Amino acid sequence: MAIRLNTKIKLTTKEEKLFVEAGGGDVENTLSQEGLATALTNTIGQLAERRSPILIKLYRQYEEIGKVPSLESLSSTNTIES
């Protein structure tokens, strides 16, 4: 669970860090709300467009154990396959 420090956010879990870093966020430092939103938007875009097979595989693993929402819920067209 991320920790909010005034206007900055510090990521604390492996899952948070993995998906924010995949979207270009700097997980070693605190992030602004805008920086976090941008990184997550980039990650969701990669997943929805199936640009990263490794990212999809990792996401599916977290999905199976209930750590993240279904991959299909991230795509408005439901075209993502495992």
Tell me about this structure.
With 82 residues, the protein is mainly α. 45% of the residues lie in helices and 10% in strands. It is built from 3 helices and 3 strands, in the order ββαβαα. Strands 1-2-3 form a 3-stranded antiparallel beta sheet. Strand 1 and strand 2 form a beta hairpin. Helix 1 crosses helix 2. It is globular.
Using the CA coordinates, give the radius of gyration.
Answer: 13 Å
Give the low-confidence spans: 77-82
Class inferred from helices and paired strands: mainly alpha
Mean of pLDDT = 85
Shape: globular
Strand content: 5-15%
Helix content: 40-55%
Strand order of the largest sheet: 1-2-3
Features:
82 residues, mainly alpha, three-stranded antiparallel beta sheet, 3 strands
Short synopsis of the structure:
The protein is mainly alpha-helical.
Topology:
Blueprint: E1 3-5, E2 8-10, H1 14-22, E3 31-32, H2 33-48, H3 53-64
Antiparallel strand pairs: 1-2, 2-3
